[in-house]
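User: For my dataset I need records formatted as: sequence, then structure tokens, nothing else. Please produce one.
Assistant:
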Amino acid sequence: MYILGLSAMGHDPAAALIDDQGAIVAAIEEGKLERTRSFGGIPRAAIRFCMERARIRWQDVERVAIASEPNRAFLRKTLYRTRLAPFAPISSAYYFTKALGELGRELNNSRILREMVGGTADRVIHFDHHLCHAASAFFGSALEKALIVSLDNQGDGRAGLVGLGEGTHIRELSSIPFPNSIAWLFTQVTSLLGFSNNASEHKTQWLSLSGEPVYTEAFVKMLRRGPNGPPQMNKKYFKRGFAGDPPFSGEFYRRLGIPQGPLAESVIQGPDNALRKNIASSFEKACEIVLSEWLEFLRGRTGSKHLCLAGGLFLNPLLVAAIERQTGFEEIFVQPAAGNEGTALGVGWLAWHKTPGRARVAPMKGSYWGPVFANVEIKQVLDNCKAPIAGSIPRTGKLMKQSNSSPRERLLPGFKEPPNSVRAPWVIAACSRLRGPSMCRKT
């Protein structure tokens, strides 16, 4: 019997199919099949692809596991907004209504899935979102014991999780409540700099390389209360209720020396604006300092030699590289599909290990679980795009292989990339079947 893992369905939903040996049969993000970067809801095309790849029907699926607990998420969000209501009644009412709508959509999706699956209601089960992130990293690694940290925007109403993984078990040590979310703040800074939030955070990340970290101290004070502490937002830098777009208070703008309000956009968002680059650089540097010192503190407290990272924040390779340099972990594993789509893997593995006595699943050896295309099919697409190609495509053989040639000559056997050409689309496709082209450029 098979286990079908589904990520949370709010954004970037994905499906992963696990066989009766715990191995991944197929896994893909819905947006890759629907050709869109913004999709929410049940990943029907991804489910269909996984089942067709395994040549099975619904009666062959033992469990459908979903990487979210909508009731618990609603409770967390409601309790947080209730505490803020006396100080920010309007924004609290808005976010409460929004959370209620999200709960309704999630419960409706669960109802539809139960109808699709058929049988008893317990065939559809839910797991905590951050626990699924943690499982995707730990069970995907070859590490027998490791500290696990999951950080994202606000999965299931909280910002992160710290846990310990050993063998087939993951034990939660602590939880990071919203709004203490570095990933959420990353989206707000991205919006402040004129990029699309929840889509262009990688632009903020790479822009940081061209600036000077002159505001690092201000951002560090914004991100934590004291040295070695976990992420904890300083309320004086934000509006009441952490509401607004952007949600920054007058104190934030004073510390950066820029005007508040609409005038800030004209001051910050020029394409070659040094201030814009410096803000990106300072924020990136502050994130590196806060997370590296906190993780090093956790290493000393738990005695862990190994670290597993998951959650959308760790799609940032500059941040991960800084953690590698500035902490004493012997080995660090980052789930390649660290974002929401990767929780489809994690929830599938959690459901697999829920049965006592099962051996631990084998570690990931790659992420090529999506569609496969023959060389002839690739050539047809390239010819249709009128892409400049030197040489000819072999009709058989592997598309990618290691050789002693230069990187431009390793793209395909028999191919050389023209000197001034853009990186070829087949190379981007080879980066990952779960992640999109934008993720490949990030990493």
